[in-house]
UniProtKB/TrEMBL annotation:
Listed name of the protein: Vacuolar protein sorting-associated protein 45
One Pfam family linked to the record: Sec1
Keyword Cytoplasm found: no
Any one annotated GO CC term: endomembrane system
Record keywords, A-Z: Membrane, Protein transport, Transport
Record family assignment: Belongs to the STXBP/unc-18/SEC1 family.
GO biological process: protein transport; vesicle-mediated transport
Organism of this sequence: Homo sapiens
Listed InterPro entries: Sec-1-like_dom1, Sec-1-like_dom3a, Sec1-like, Sec1-like_sf
Main location: membrane
SUPFAM superfamilies for the chain: Sec1/munc18-like (SM) proteins
Compartments where located: Endomembrane system
Amino acid sequence: MNVVFAVKQYISKMIEDSGPGMKVLLMDKETTGIVSMVYTQSEILQKEVYLFERIDSQNREIMKHLKAICFLRPTKENVDYIIQELRRPKYTIYFIYFSNVISKSDVKSLAEADEQEVVAEVQQVITKEYELFEFRRTEVPPLLLILDRCDDAITPLLNQWTYQAMVHELLGINNNRIDLSRVPGISKDLREVVLSAENDEFYANNMYLNFAEIGSNIKNLMEDFQKKKPKEQQKLESIADMKAFVENYPQFKKMSGTVSKHVTVVGELSRLVSERNLLEVSEVEQELACQNDHSSALQNIKRLLQNPKVTEFDAA
């Protein structure tokens, strides 16, 4: 099941059910992140959504020409915000969608607040399909596999070396956004970057590749561009060379924001791998996981634990 596609379909249905006309999307902190993960601003503009607002914003203007699509979590705080909104409506009509089950008492409170009858509908956007958990297909005999993870306790503890996994483990990512503000010498426009397989072809093609292949693929992409400038060609032997190349060519940087982003991300991953001595840590992990002879393992582990470069997280 493609979760991103499923969420995109849900949001698309919310917008389409409101009918034609200019719309505003009212969200909370969490649902804002959900929508931004699956839709770009240009994509959602094509669906006549011209304004994006937070339900907790106190400075919203009255715009009676807009329809309001509210996509919120059914928290007490959000219900209170909606009640305040309905008592003094800023938009012509409201379509309210909650991301989970809302209590009957809250629905009653919303109905009582809607004195001007501006609410068109209230819905819960949740999946209750039994097919997610039950498979009643008779054409294939059912097969149940019961596996004991105790037989393979070490695999989940290994360092990962594919692009997507390294980004998650070393940099952290939330709603497809990576905070790079602490990267030494980072430029202002790269302090936060977006990695989305939906909108980034390079990331979609490389997210499951090994780290060594990522650097090679970025290098090939940049060298293809360099071929257009034969007088200004230079060798790209390292991540530092690539970063210098991007910084020295404003035109290239403008045309290739995706490349700039990935050069920065890969450069930071490379720095962290070196700083935390992860290659040596991973070598010991692989030795423990894949080899039967562990005669030197204890000494190697002790040596790593005494290494100031190895963090407590990596040593655990």
